[in-house]
Fold these 4 entries.
Entry 1:
Amino acid sequence: MEEHAILEKEIDKGDFSRGGEASSELKALLRKLGINNTIIRRAAIVTYELEMNIIIHSEGGNIKAAVSSDEIFIYIDDEGPGIEDLEKAFQPGYSTASDEVREMGFGAGMGLVNVKNYSDQLEIDTAPGEGTSIKVVIAIK
């Protein structure tokens, strides 16, 4: 199926004031396309979690989204430290967020857990010191 890009957004490190913009924009775009609200919710949750991970853990990055007739594709690339232990990153409650971030109410250790739970397909390419690339696929039908 051919993908059609619908969103591309740069995300800055530590810019909590803009956290959630990409997920809100994606939600509005998917509504205009007539996508089912349950599917939109899943895509918004995934995008929000990935967006916040870029803000909290990386030096910046970007989020892209595309759709085909059957699927929503969400891609992120960041210039962060990479994920040192993927197995731990998927354990509910495991977090490497700083105390400052936790005091703001973020970094509860559910980001990648939620991404996995609301995705139909999840691919992660990461290495310590190399940044992280993630591809998520959510079936529309």
Entry 2:
Amino acid sequence: MKYKLPLIFAFVCGILVVISEFIPHRPFNMMISTLQDWFMIISGFAILLGQISLFQANIKKIKEKNPDWVFYLAGLISFTVMLIFGLLWGTQEYRGILGNGENIQATVGMKPFDYLFENAFMPLSSTMFSLLAFFIASAAYRAFIIRSFESNLLMITAVIVMLGRTSFGGMLTSWLPEGLRFLHLPNLSDFIMEFPNSAAQRAILISAALGIIGSSLRIILGIERSYLGGEK
């Protein structure tokens, strides 16, 4: 019963959602609305469980003095400070337990939660993504090294697109006659982005959608049971 009940519940809910997509009328639309409300409630509890799990996992690593335990401690302190500020004085749109913190707003210009978000979280996020740019550049360099036909094609396409998106690319091919206008780098770049690139992106999206459908069917039919805790 411990595993059969969730399987039956997942099957019934999944079938109802599928039917409601094809028959969006009563009583299916009302059932789906109720299921969506349940989903929001369960999501709230899932977030709470995630926060408890975060505390338990980090405290354990700090107690055991695992490598880089200082970073786990910094994460816990940051999480706790943001949580306390959010609960006491709220966020930009919502009041906190102590109100809106007018005195603090008069001093720092905004609520404590928003102040930390704007002046600590956002700069740190920008720093992290700036560092990622170097890794992307390194990966692009390795991808553009000429080793095979595919890498040649990738490099030529990338050069055309990059040059075509700049004024320098337009200058390089501006001398071509009007009859060869399709060979202008900006036109070639637009063609690549509009047709081959769009076709590849749509193929990826279709593949992802088919994968989601397959995973959903496995859960509805009870084939995929990893969400039950690994029971086979």
Entry 3:
Amino acid sequence: MINSSLKQLGEMLQAKKISSVELTQTFLDRIQQYNPSINAYIALDEAKTLAQAKAADARIADGNVAPLTGIPIAQKDIFCAKGWQTTCGSKMLANFIAPYDAHIITQFDAAGAVNLGKTNMDEFAMGSSNETSYFGGVKNPWSFDRVPGGSSGGSAAAVAARLCAAATGTDTGGSIRQPASLCGFTGLKPTYGAVSRYGMIAFASSLDQAGPMAKSAEDCALMMNVMAGFDERDSTSLNREKEDYTRALYNSNPTKPLQGLKVGLPKEYFSEGLDASVGKVIEAAIAEYKKLGAEIVDISLPNTGLSIPVYYVLAPAEASSNLSRYDGVRYGHRAAEYTDLMDMYNKSRAEGFGAEVKRRILIGTYVLSAGYYDAYYLKAQQIRRLIAQDFVEAFKKCDVIMGPAAPSTAFKAGEKVDDPVAMYLQDIYTISTNLAGLPGMSIPAGFAQSDDGVSLPVGLQIIGNYFDEARMLNVAHQYQQVTDWHERMPELVLPKEVK
């Protein structure tokens, strides 16, 4: 049952083969068994969760059913949920109880889904390994000495270890797709503006976007049907007609379901920096797409190499502004002892933020300061436009773009923590998509051997044009009809002391 798709779980619930309370309790029991070792969850509230499950069962009994009614979903701890501890992985918000619901929490509640708990994450979503969380690092379920990726590492580990039916995440520079690649499941970052950011704690507002993290493309499509849609409370939410993201999944030619699809392969994604074993897995996936009828087209995204420096000017600049509200007066941790107001500000922020967050606030403040704005921030915005234009030109030649989601498989905890640049390069293939505002996803494509002989998941990235999520999900779904990488789950071997 824990490996069933959301559609299968929904059918079991509606046929009353299982109740939502029973399903939810199954996942709560697994969380109790495995979370002490994996650390995927920050906050659990069994009474609240089971009350929602009981309400879902009543709704099913009344015949008022939606596809996700009664299904337990884990929520990244970046989303405010009324009455729940909402920390964003930071000491600054360690005691914050949200007084209202984020838009997507409201949407899942309306669909009758069950909130299973709040998942661990890099502090304020700043990280690619989930090692910057105030609540401790998250373990990769495929190998407990490795990272799950970040910043949505708790949601990633929970999905991979089957500690939830599915989860939510956010993606500012790759925070859904990179952990999806490292943990072996399907994760989608929608077009910027497709999902409301209301109630989502801000990191870099022009880049942040919420999305689904689940076993398969079909699961992600069902979640997108709940998450996406206009919300007047978010000024960047796009007022578009609500669409059915599952509509393309079941209408394909059975022999050549992707006949005529043009897949662009950017040469910049297959050059220096890509681990050879990861490259082989991606090539095998591309070969499978040819069998499905896709035509491969060589393309170029010439400014890809500039995406990291551009991102690490723009994102810290926005973060320095967004995080200025945490001063110990209006929001967040306040130092216990101080001499005057300025001392209180200084001590509260010094104690409340971790090292990576402080680093990015300092960078952001610097690039926005008088005398440097034109040289750094303005120049970065100009290059961002060029990066977006690269994609405009590429989509004149192809329907979707494919390549690796991450340059390597999951690395060992602590391996890159003292080398910020090496850590930032983990997102080399994902960041440009955020800068352009395009949708992107990672799907399981196979496994590669690490240097010490461990078999680890590899993700294939699929990038689409604006609002082309339905086509992307179908492209992923057809691949998942002829492969079983998305159904593989890790054998969880607990350390002896917790057995």
Entry 4:
Amino acid sequence: MKRWMIYVGLVVLFILHQDFWFWDDATLVFGVFPVGLFYHIMYSVVAGCMWALAIKFAWPDLGEDESQ
């Protein structure tokens, strides 16, 4: 994975974080979560995966320094 893909992913995450489209929606997901809250739960999972990929591919030798 190229570094530019990480940068594009971060920009996409930044744009998706502005979730003004769910502010007036009272729909419940699974009968429990308001759709805005569920969106942010999923957003957090995707953001965590994105940062894990960023660490793995942008700094691939990070783990080797800790073992020495």
